[in-house]
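FW: tagging you since you asked about this chain on Friday. Here's the raw sequence from the shared folder, copied in full. Didn't touch anything.
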Amino acid sequence: MDVMETCGRLYIQKAQFSVILGKTHFNINRFPKYRPGFSDLSYRKPKNNVCCCSSSNVDEVFSVTSSSKSDVDYLGESTKGDFNVKKEQLEAFGIDGQETLKGPIEEIARMEAKEAEQLLGDLGIQDPFSTRQSPRGIFCTRTLNLRSISAIGYDMDYTLIHYNVKAWEGRAYDYCLDNLRSMGYPVEGLEFDPDLVIRGLVLDKERGNLVKADRFGYVKRAMHGTKMLSTRSVSEIYGRELVDLRNESRWEFLNTLFSVSEAVAFMQMVDRFDGGAIPSELGSIDYKGIYKAVGKALFRAHVEGQLKSEIMSKPECFVEPDPELPLALLDQKEAGKQLVLITNSDYHYTDTMMKHSFNLFLPNDMGWRDLFDMVIVSARKPEFFQMAHPMYEVVTEEGLMRPCFKTRPGGLYSGGSAQMVESSLKVQGDEILYVGDHIYTDVSQSKVHLRWRTALVCRELEEEYTALIRSRGHRAELVELINQKEVVGDLFNQLRLALQRRTKGRPAQTLAATNMDDQELTESMQKLLIVMQRLDEKIAPMLEADGEHFNKRWGYLSRAGLWDKSHLTRQIEKYADIYTSRVSNFLHYTPFMYFRSQEQTLSHDSYSYYSANVNGFADDNLNGSPSL
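HL: got it, structure written out here
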């Protein structure tokens, strides 16, 4: 058997590649050097420009479901893009489909799945199910068939281009403080502290607080200025109100990593305000006024161009390139997906960042522009998804533009609207997947206004995943203590009810409880109370420390409390069909992946499982209690 490795892929001579209804008879162990791993992928030019499996060969054997002939499957997803075996070719390949498929499909599928796992292992390819259980997984909240996606749109900043947060946001913070100083605010001695905030927190502009809310909007943790508030203070301040992001005059959601520098500066200026350091010459100022001043200072840093000019002059100091990323996009493009870049950044900045991050890792003389069917800069999102704006074509390297009313393949444009993208690519709605890092600007608005499919990029997921693994022992001990308190508390409550009934001259719940003497009942309750008090003393600090492996102040990104989801997680579940830590994770899944959402457990699921086991009706397929 002849094997060639080209373009980071395996090509096997077709004449010696026998396929029997999905079974591949190929002993990879005979070719140990052809065990590709994702870490050492490189795009190599095929020898003599020949690929052993040509598109004409594929077309003879398979057909692809077109839009006009597509249907919906049993999960409600379009079958567009699905591969089909041409039945007339089965005999030519010596395959008797009916004979091979004899027997119960359950047995056939079980055998085929086992052999598929074995072959994936032999090829050195990690299967998607294993990949999902890793920091580099792609996680699905709503079933998504990538085969039915005709076009994929990408945001740039913190999506295709990942910045070193301390470097980028640190410089943004520096420029912000310079502008605040020029406005008369006291900023001497302040330093950038990126650990002060995390994505998904909410600024309370009325009170000068930063809060973390659960999925229902209840505040679980809060900070005033740079000082964390006690649980008691949080309860007193927010016990009777919910975070409502629709009230934009009060609440500001930290949607993206770009929010870090603004939030840090705001919280530090709250401390200066509380300390009476704000000059009276600035007039009557409250917390909202401070927020406006910080926002204005940061806006000036972006608009005046000094910040981006510095980053463009030395991108290597701010950008963290991902060598796998260009290959992931190249796979999508070669699979027939139309790729579109839609960014709010201007042309010169976009071109500089993309060249730095992409060109080095693309094959031959290919440049970053060659990946995209359309590039749109200065898009003005979220308005780009909401309304129409004039579109201009960028016609020179210097950025000279002219009005444009009709797009062309590979064009570079400024402004415009999402409707123009749909018209140009001849696709619409759920045929488009948009990938971005901003919950509101990228993900929410493209879904709400256009019904595009959506993917959220959140780099912090990798750190959180690792932190959750490290804290397994701590969380297991904490859960055990809480369960112990619940059992002890149940007994105490029953004895308390028995005592209550006894004082009213009524019998207790059971004969045994009624027959307990007064001293035994009282002593038992006293002992149980002491146990519960000691448990509380142990549990409280452990709860406070839960999540400190991720952030000592705020805990985990996705959680609010031990079991509940954070407000950020609720936003992700509501607006993002899939989410992941980086775009290059698509490389581990192929452009043909069918993402299926996981079972969503309910509070009573665990009780029904427990009841089934207790009564001897446990399902053999249930291998443990459902996760909560």
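FW: The first strand starts at residue 3 and ends at 6.
HL: agreed, and DSSP finds 20 helices and 23 strands in the chain.
FW: great, closing this out.
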